[in-house]
Each structure stands twice: as C-alpha cells, then as structure tokens.
Amino acid sequence: MLGFFERQRLVRKGLASAKQRRRRTESELMQTLEHGLLAKLGVFAAFVLGLAILILSDGGSSSTDNVLIGILIFVVALAQLWINHPGAWESNSRLVLIFGVLLVHLAAVKWVLITADAQPLVERQLLWRLAVPYSLAPLTLSVLLGRNHGIYATIFASLWTALVYRSLSDAKLLVMSLICGFIAVFVTMEVRRRSRLIRAGLFVGLATLLLALLFGKVGPIDWSALSDNHWTFIGWQSVVAIGSGIGTALVIGGALPVLENMFRVTTNISWLELADLNHPLLRRMTIEAPGTYHHSLVVAQLAEAAAEAIGANPAIARVSAYFHDIGKLVKPEYFTENMRYGRNPHDELAPTMSALIILAHVKEGVDLALKNRLNQQVVDAIQQHHGTSLVFYFYKRALQQQEDARQGGKIMNIREEDIPEVCEESFRYPGPKPQSKECAILSLADGIESASRSIEKITPQKVDQLIDDIVQKRLLDDQLSDCDLSLRELGVVTESFKNTLHSMMHSRVAYPSDRPSEKRETPSPTKLRNLPPASAA
After folding, report:
1. Cα 210 to the chain's mean position, in Å?
2. Element (H, E) at 334
3. CA atoms within 13 A on the CB side of 416
4. What percentage of the chain carries pLDDT values higher than 70?
5. How many degrees, rounded to 5, is the angle at CA 314 between CA 312 and CA 315?
6. Each residue of 32-56: b (16+ CB within 10 Å) or e?
7. If you ran DSSP here, which 8-state letter would residue 7 be given?
8. 82 near 95, Cβ under 8 Å?
C-alpha cells in the first residue's frame, strides 16, 4: 500500500511513468495450491475415496479385498507417475486433471455396466455392454497432455475398470479396455483438427465391435446357418458399438475447451486456431510494421520445420514466431526492417539510447501479449527469444565513441575519469534464456533470418557459413544452456535451417529487357533453355 502512494507521488512530480507494465503473477495461495504437499495429498486422498466408493457400491463379499487391491494399484500408479512424468507430479493441477478424468472414466464405465445388468431382457443387456466408453480417459489425456499420459491412462484405467465392476478375473473386459485405449492413443498422436477426434472414435468403435465379435458378445451368430441369424439385432449391436466410440469422441471434443481453460493446457488444435493470421495484433503489424510482419512469417517457417525435424511441437514454434516481435509495434520505425527511404533514426541518437529502444521491444511485447490475453507459452517465447544476448552493433558503436572521446580528451586535456564507461550489461537483453526446445529454435531462427538479409551475393556456401557462425556464437555465449536441446538435436536443427534457407534464398535468372531504349543482351542458347515459363515470372 505504501509503495502505491509513493509511486503516485513520483508520477505527480513527473519522476515516474503513470503506465504500469502488465505482469502475470500468481498469489502465494495459488502457488501453494499448485505445488504444496498438503494439496497433493488431498488430491490423492480424494481419488482413493472416490475409487473406494465405486468399488464398495456393489456391496459384494469381496469388496473390501478389491478396495485393498485398488489402493495397491494406485501406489504403483503414483510410482509410475513420479518416475516417468515428473512435470505432472510437480503440478497439482495436472494431478487433478489426470486423476479427475480417470475417476470420471471409471464412474461412466461402471454406470453403463450396472445399467446393462439391470435390463430385464438379454438383448438389451448385450446392447448396453457394447456402449461402454473404453476410450474416455485415454483419448482425453492423450489429446490434452500427450501420448505418454494417454498410455498411462489406458493401463491404469483398464485395471481399475475390471476392479470396480467385478474383479480382475474378468479378463475379457480388461483386454477390451486395453486394446481400445491403445487404439485411441495411437490415432490421436498428432491431432491438429477436431475431425481427427471423430476418426479416433470411429476406430475405437470398430475395435470394440471386432473384439465383441471375437469374444462372442455379438449375436449369437451361427456361422453354419447364416440365414437363420438375427441380422437386424446384430446390426443394432454394430451401431451401438461404433456409435459409442464416436459419441465418446464428440463428448471429449465439446469438453476440451473447458478443460483447457480450467487447467491452462493448450492442445495442438488450439495452437492451430491461434495461428490465424487475422489476429488483431498481426493485422496491426501488416500496416504499422510490414517488415517485421514479413520477418515473422519467414521465422515461423524456419522454426516450424526445425521443430518438426527433432520431434518438438511445430505448432508452438510457428505461433510463437508469429508473435515474438509484436513489441516492435510501439516504435516500428526504429527497427531496420521497417525503415523507409534510407532514413535511420538511430543516426540522431546515442548508442545507449538506441540500445534502450531495441531492448524495450521485448518488454513491450510481453505487455501487448498480456493485454491481448495471449497464451502463456507465447508470452514466455516473447520474453525468452533473445535470451541475455548482446545488442552487438550499438555496443561496438558505444565502444568506438568512447575510444574517440579518449583520443579527443588527450588533445583537450580531459581527465580519463570524466569519460563515461560503457557497461556491457546495459546492452544485453534482460532474459531469461530460452527454457524450452521451441523457444531455443525460435531464438536461433530469429537471429539467422535477420542476419541472412545482409548477404549481398547469395551462395549456398555463404548461407551455410552464416548459420554455423550464429549457432556457434549462441553456444559460446551460453544462450542455450537452460533448455533441453541436445547437441545432436542442435545439429539436426542447423541442417533444417540450411535446407529451408536454401529453398527461400535462391537466385533468379536475369530476364532480357523488352524496352527498346535499353541495351539488349542476346541470351545464349543455354540461358534460354534454363529460363522458366512466363507464368512463373
């Protein structure tokens, strides 16, 4: 509170800016809930309680034993999560998502199976048993958190499903749940459109139907007398089995936006929606900073291809590249790609002031991103894409001016201590360094694309040398030390940059002039054979 009044006093005196940069901060309570041990234990206790209620609702004689078995399976599930998914283990919200979805899955499966048992007719029982949503948890977690979490859900949801209904002795139910779950995960490994969810549901439905047919749960079918079978009922069974898979996918597709907002998860589907170039910030950039807009598009192509080459997320790389330089919208004319008519406003500024303007585009970009409620990963990419690198041009210019002042000072008898020192830290970005593979790729692609514009006579050798030099400089400057990009992956990324730039920066054939006033050069037969068709000009 005292800090607020002090700031207002400085604003009234003109000693502070009335504008405050937006910051996305979490309260201490939210951080405790997200990472606290008590909250984590609360999540585990709630799941165990829900699991016990589902098992004991049967009221069988072996229910107590089944509860004990379920708890032991839960201990194994926790160990698996701690070993293979440390990121999810550290985040309580991820634990709520994982075990919450698993609990909903178990409740839905048990409700369908109990409803099937309550049907008075055998035919209705058979129909209900084919409507079990085997892919609910695997499909949901595979799309939200990735295939490894989908496989995790498949294994433990299958074990608990067989346990909450009767016991682990129901091998057919266990096998059907496992196979359908693995199929759901396999089909949704790269979901970029919501239609892929429907396709996954269709495959799960077909798998359910085939497995039911294999286990004799369809029909019954008399293969020796096919004409005597009740084909209408078999047709209804097929519709229910396939419809169950598709219906599960439709429910998940509708629930995804809610789950993404609740748990701050962004799927590949949402990343592609964020890649829409009609976003207000990108439309502003086309008008106010067209050079930056074109630069961002090229960087997006470089980053997406490199991310795909090493198995990183290409959608994150592309969207982050679109927005990484939105801070230049504040003062677009001070960046070289937007300068027009040969006027350079930095000629009238001191190097320290020029560097201050250049460095500020990162903070301004974060401010604009938060104002427009961009994804947190995009905000991180804006903040990290320069790391703590040096604005080398203005730093060297400041050193040169300092040296000139010293030489002039000797003539004019100016003392050495009166000449201001050049501090390297004043010419470095505030960071942090790239924390993920996608941010590291974006950082390299940004520097490579900017530097490639300075090549006068483009040759493949010059392009390769430029890329190698920039990557080597980033390594020596320790800019890639905080991300998990290995040296092998860095080599693959470098080759991807080279291939993409070679295809972008090829030279074109000089066309002969058709104007009579200009001197014509008669092309050789070889050049004429190599000329592209007129439609390609």
Report:
1. 36
2. none
3. 0
4. 82
5. 130
6. ebeeeeeebeebeeebbebbbebbe
7. H
8. no
| CA 110 from centre of chain | 35
Cα 153 from Cα 161, distance rounded (Å): 11
What is the pTM (predicted TM-score) of this model?
0.77
Q: What whole-number distance in Å separates Cα of residue 438 and Cα of residue 459?
A: 28
The pLDDT of residue 1 is above 60: no
| Burial per residue of 358-387, b for 16 or more beta-carbon CB atoms within 10 angstroms, e otherwise | bbbbbbbbbbbbbeeebbebbbbbbbbbbb
Name the band, by pLDDT with cuts 50, 70 and 90, for residue 447: very high
Instruction: In whole angstroms, give the CA distance from residue 71 to residue 156.
Output: 12
Buried b (16+ CB within 10 A) or exposed e, 338-352: beeeeeeebeeeebb
The per-residue pLDDT for range 206-265, each reduced to its tens digit, is: 998 888 888 877 766 656 665 666 667 788 888 998 999 999 999 998 899 899 989 888
Three-state DSSP at 55 gives: helix
**What residues does 342 pair with on adjacent strands?**
none
Sequence-distant (6+) residues with CB within 8 A of 206 are: 241, 242, 245
Asked if 437 and 312 touch (Cβ cutoff 8 Å), the reply is yes
Q: What is the mean pLDDT of residues 357-365?
A: 94
| Residue-averaged pLDDT of the chain | 84
Cα 434 from chain centre: 14
Residue 269 has pLDDT above 90, yes or no: no
Mean pLDDT of 168-197: 83
Distance CA 334, CA 343 (A): 10
Number of H helices, E strands in the chain: 23, 0
End-to-end CA distance of the chain: 66
Beta bridge partners of 428: 390
pLDDT at 480: 92
- In the numeric block, which tokens belong to residue 12? 């009234």
- The answer on pLDDT for 48 being more than 70 is yes
Residue pLDDT, tens place only, 115-149: 888 888 777 888 888 889 999 999 999 999 988 99
Helix, strand or coil, per DSSP, at residue 435: coil
Q: Which of 460, 458, 454 is nearest to 497 (CA)?
A: 460
What burial letters (b/e) apply to 179-213, b meaning 16+ CB within 10 Å?
A: bbbbbbbebbeebeebebbeebbbbbbbbbbebbb
Cβ(399)–Cβ(422) under 8 Å?
Answer: yes
- What sign for the dihedral angle of Cα 180, 181, 184, 189? negative
Distance, CA of 175 to CA of 169 (rounded, Å): 11
Residue type, 376: Q
CB 372 within 8 Å of CB 337: no
Q: What is the pLDDT of residues 287-298, one digit of tens each?
A: 999 999 999 999
In DSSP terms, which residues pair with 390 in a beta bridge? Answer: 428
